[in-house]
Amino acid sequence: FTPIWCMSFCFSLALSNFNSFVIRTNTCGELRSAHVGQEVTLYGWIQYQRQGLFLVLRDFQGLTQIILPQDEAHSHVKKLLSNAPVESVVRVTGIVSSRPPGQENPKMPTGDIEVKAETAEILNSCKKLPFEIKDFIKKSEALRMQYRYLDLRSFQLQYNLRLRSHIVMRMREYLCNLHGFVDVETPTLFKRTPGGAKEFLVPSREAGKFYSLPQSPQQFKQLLMVGGLDRYFQVARCYRDEGSRPDRQPEFTQIDIEMSFVDQAGIQRLIEGLLQYCWPEERGPIVTPFPSMTYKEALADYGTDKPDTRFGMKIVDISDFLRRLDIQFVQNALSYPHGTVKAICIPQGVKCLRQQCITTDAVCDATFMKHSFPGWCLSDFPDSKIAPSHYLPSLLQCSALGNLRLESADLLEAAGLVLRDPTAFHFLWVVDFPLFLPKEENPTELESAHHPFTAPHPSDTSLLYSDPTKARSQHYDLVLNGSEVGGGSIRIHSAEQQRFVLEKVLKEDSEVLSHLLEALEFGAPPHGGIALGLDRLISLIVDAPSIRDVIAFPKSFRGRDLMGNAPDYVTPEELEPYHIQVSWPLAERGKEKL
Amino acid sequence: FTPIWCMSFCFSLALSNFNSFVIRTNTCGELRSAHVGQEVTLYGWIQYQRQGLFLVLRDFQGLTQIILPQDEAHSHVKKLLSNAPVESVVRVTGIVSSRPPGQENPKMPTGDIEVKAETAEILNSCKKLPFEIKDFIKKSEALRMQYRYLDLRSFQLQYNLRLRSHIVMRMREYLCNLHGFVDVETPTLFKRTPGGAKEFLVPSREAGKFYSLPQSPQQFKQLLMVGGLDRYFQVARCYRDEGSRPDRQPEFTQIDIEMSFVDQAGIQRLIEGLLQYCWPEERGPIVTPFPSMTYKEALADYGTDKPDTRFGMKIVDISDFLRRLDIQFVQNALSYPHGTVKAICIPQGVKCLRQQCITTDAVCDATFMKHSFPGWCLSDFPDSKIAPSHYLPSLLQCSALGNLRLESADLLEAAGLVLRDPTAFHFLWVVDFPLFLPKEENPTELESAHHPFTAPHPSDTSLLYSDPTKARSQHYDLVLNGSEVGGGSIRIHSAEQQRFVLEKVLKEDSEVLSHLLEALEFGAPPHGGIALGLDRLISLIVDAPSIRDVIAFPKSFRGRDLMGNAPDYVTPEELEPYHIQVSWPLAERGKEKL
């Protein structure tokens, strides 16, 4: 049987009684030498059985070896249990005994004992599995998702879901019990926010009118502050319709927090305390306060606003060095205003990446969009690979080098180097984001870097009115090992300033937000908050390859539930109360008759 | 100022620190004589102010009296605070002082002290309110909902939301920490369940395919049991599209629970323990175990399956008494097979309800659908009102008398009698429901009394196959003071039995549930559960007239958000990715151009 099942859940609370309200006397992970001689009743799944001699019974807590009776008087018990297929659910009552000397299994918490079955009952027989549970992990993810209820029986998913539940409970204790936060539920049937192109629509019974499933409780949490709630939190279900994107889910969960009369440092200290309080002991301690880096520094040093600080290979400016050399295309680049050449130094790059040169070139080609030059090494920069940043004076251009840095790290690790300690957790605050960014489709117009409710940096308030492109915001991101796990800001609480941002800077119709603007006029307190992406955070803590591994019933990357087959066709009659009809694409006309 | 604000929240945890991470030194409900001499910084709303002498500052925790400085050196502070409109948000820093002798306010927790302001800051001014906050309760509910963020500042809503948060936290502690339950989030984007006519639809980007917002996590929680989770709970958001119905919400919350290897008594004891654990001290103790009553008894004695057992006036059978009298239409009724005449005895009915005779007659007319006879009194039944049950031999007909019983109770209480102690909480289990009921639209066909996953009563398993109409179920309802606050059942865990119910009894296409049927074949454990209606439960605990009073942002009874104006129109372009278009009712064509 799978040895991984011998592990127990370190985070299980000693206080918890798993046997209350049920007839079992013990779980399958509980029995020890101290129980020898007791009559016990266990319920579980047959994990394994051997030649009518013994079987291994499994439940969520562990495994217990059951010895089948061999005497004539109990022949029906032996027959019953021997004939039950693997993964059948059974009740076994029997006496706890010491295992014969030499047969103890020290890797198994219950490895000192076995239970001699006296009576048994097959509660539900299992039909032949389409695969063996223990091999499940090797199966295609589609198959695992189709039979999710079987996958959930694996140690790994049980562990992930139980740890998730435990961490969230600890977060609640910290927020609610220790710091006076109020858990308030906010609506998920609301209306479109401006620019809410990624919001699912829900047709109502009023012709032409739709609810929208919000991407976050942003408006509601601000209104709760206006309502004097003072400290709000919610484990909030959020929705985002992004079509097909890898490792995104159409519904996801965030730890949503908002406070009145708080500044950026207040929120940061709160979150550091929160994470320290809920952090699972088995992952080692985390140190607070977390380091902080400005957006500008992050882009300059790491080429990204979510730097993975577990390893170096920072971006360095080699313009001054190169200026001395007579390389024509480099000199060309440097002759532009603000022209620079930047590089990352890859430790043992020549030794380790010689074979990968073609790969890294491919990375360069892809990330520099053909603006790269071939990889080469300078003797003064041993083991280095030099690549130019695009010469536009925008820090954003560093992202190409940032991508190269991460790709190189992957390649180095594939070559056997340990760059990033898999047990290390590097939290980082990234601060001082710009308030606005040029719109991708039309760079002469501005859009909010995060959302229009973000307050300007206290030092940049006058810039908001004079030169908004230069204004920094009071937005902060929380980064863990190179992934964004949270983000928040101090919000605008002045109606006048909010109206200016919406109408004058963003050129948006503020009418759809009139309720919020009006609320700000009725004594809205200064406030700010943050949201932590729970799925991502948990997946990093348990080192899962995907957030799908920390969600009980995830959707496929196309947004489908492969177990229940959702979304699905509905009849025209079912659409009628909602006053909608399907506009079939030409190729699919007639399909509605299916 | 409103005296109700002088109350404090009894359930506030002594451990909670409301001043962490912010600059204030204290909340407005905290200061006592012990603080005299300290310099404090408070943040809050101006509740009231008087002639430049003092003002009352309010936050979520209470009120503090602030004395404005009268000396020349502080004239700017006086001016600032005197000119700030009511409900403006201010910071005040000053020294805590004892109130002058005789000016203490014993009704106010901070009534022994006042704060002498030294510096102050207007953080946000409040424009003229459309009404006074303290009179809010008298305003129309539509106005209160439009300005919900102002209504939230009232003591009552703060109290309701904070108590709700506290009760849910206690529930989590009980389930998660004490009894090993796992908090698992289940999807809200799923697909239609058979007969799910009340499920909102969510169009997907695949033409013609829709998600559905589930009415409960029923399928998922059962699948979690198949997945070996053993003990699941979730504070689950649920959706139900019922159009306009008073005191229903399109989205609501239930405490959703499922356990493996449990029987009905196990779930009942769990819930009793849960409610006892989370019950607010200030509402007095509740006694467990809760009394239990069969569905048959409930209908016979109270004419409803959710009896309000806080008062008597049970239904009695007076057929034998009436058989002796020569009243023709009564004799007619009694001559039918199973013909009976039933009555309720209304204490002091003649005295109290003489004036209301017309009203009760109206009730009779309405509830008996014109089958009633005029109310009259018999000398042998002093103070009684006699009304016949419909003569069909179905217990359901008792519902008319059940309604009359409740209406009469209302009338008696309006007349000054105290029938139902407003501080009493009468919990009751109603059990042994029928498994199936005749369909209303076609009584020869059967439908599930609750849902198709409900297991038959252990004594009635064979009836399921021989005469399903007679089979009782393992469904149980939890009733509090005449309102259903929970319901659950032991579920079918045999695939064969589940298929029989779906295909043979309910004549439904089991294909849409094929994933569940298949799951039952793979070693599904016996399991059962319950769901508590959180909104209703909290509203009963705080004695709120509507569940809207315990929800931060409720919808109107037409399902509208009156603050943000949802649902709302969207453009045809926004519908395009979802391959739907609006079918405008004829009368509204052209409206889409608006």
Automatic annotation (TrEMBL), chains A, B:
UniProt-listed PROSITE patterns: AA_TRNA_LIGASE_II
Cleavable signal peptide: 1-16
GO cellular component terms listed in the entry, alphabetical order: mitochondrion
Key words of the record: Aminoacyl-tRNA synthetase, ATP-binding, Ligase, Nucleotide-binding, Protein biosynthesis, Signal
InterPro entries linked: Aa-tRNA-synt_II (IPR004364), aa-tRNA-synth_II (IPR006195), aa-tRNA-synth_II/BPL/LPL (IPR045864), Asp-tRNA-ligase_1 (IPR004524), Asp-tRNA-ligase_1_N (IPR047089), Asp/Asn-tRNA-synth_IIb (IPR002312), AspRS_core (IPR047090), GAD-like_sf (IPR004115)
One MF annotation (Gene Ontology) recorded for this entry: aspartate-tRNA ligase activity
Region (Disordered): 446-466
Name of this chain's protein: Aspartyl-tRNA synthetase 2, mitochondrial
UniProt organism field: Buteo japonicus
